[in-house]
Model the fold of this input.
Amino acid sequence: MEKRTMNLMIPTKLALMLLFLALAGCTTVRLVSDYDEVTDKSLTEIQKKTDDFMENLSKHHGTSATSLDSNKEFYEEIERDLRILSFRVGAVPNNKQTIELVENLKVGILGDPSNPTGTSLKELHQLQKNRDNGIPETTLRIAQRIINQLFTAALSLEIAKKRGEDK
Amino acid sequence: MSNGEITADNLGDKIFDASKSEFGAKFGLVKKYLKTESEKLAITLRMIIEGRATGEVTEEEAKILLNMQKLAAKSVLTAAEGMSLLAVEAAINAALAVVKDFVNSKVGFPLL
Done:
């Protein structure tokens, strides 16, 4: 019995060693996609656009400039930007986490049709009491912190993918 | 034999040391990220609770903000997952580099 176990262990050890040598033959192992400059730049641009928008809502609160109707264009533009970014990150191999982070941005800014309670800046703006005069200051500041944290998560991971060689 | 030399006897230890060192350095950054972001999450949650208590945030708004907050927590963990994978990847590659150096030095030319 003991001899049979030993006989089995030798080929297993050999196979593991060969596997390791074969892996060593590859230059490097990649578990997560490479850093993508386009993703980094797009995230930074969308973050800036969204942050400027919220600052503007705060500055002009109570005026018609902050009504939902006056700002439809912003939501349409962000929807388009995030759709383009989703295509981009979806085309990169080993990019599961970034795909999820971009999806969370979409849900946090524009909403999730499967969640009737609401999950987004747009849905805060769509509330009956906020449609005409915009989102009130306290609510807006909290939403801004959350949205910035969503962007930070996506950007932090993208930057971490630089793997030290070009940081 | 110098202490730094890789031999068939100490190869396992060298692989372990290289992986541990790479993983430790990278995982330290993941921990730092998680700590900073968890503090941010806690502050935001406190702001929602306070805003609701003072009436500055309506019930409808609070519900949406809490859903957004859940999303942010999910994103922080997803980013940390990706960063942890990068740490594992660095550890594997450091180990492979040790094996590569060992094999190449034994055969006398860059085989791997």
